[in-house]
Design brief:
mainly beta; hydrolase activity, acting on glycosyl bonds; Glycoside hydrolase family 2 domain-containing protein; Ig-like_fold; hydrolase
Length: 65
Amino acid sequence: MPTADELVAVLVKNGTILGLANGDPADLDGYNCQEKKLFSGKLMAIIKKEPGKVPLIQAALKKGK
């Protein structure tokens, strides 16, 4: 949905979350976190994989914050 703003939790196995960003200029939360609200239905995760492994990325909607 293009107006979605739910809270999303991101978990990574075989890697590390370097940052989460949603493009919202009013969002003052930092980038180094494991959960963030969607902005217009979008969220971007920057992941660093462990050498020789494929990262498994899980994202789940959360209720409230």
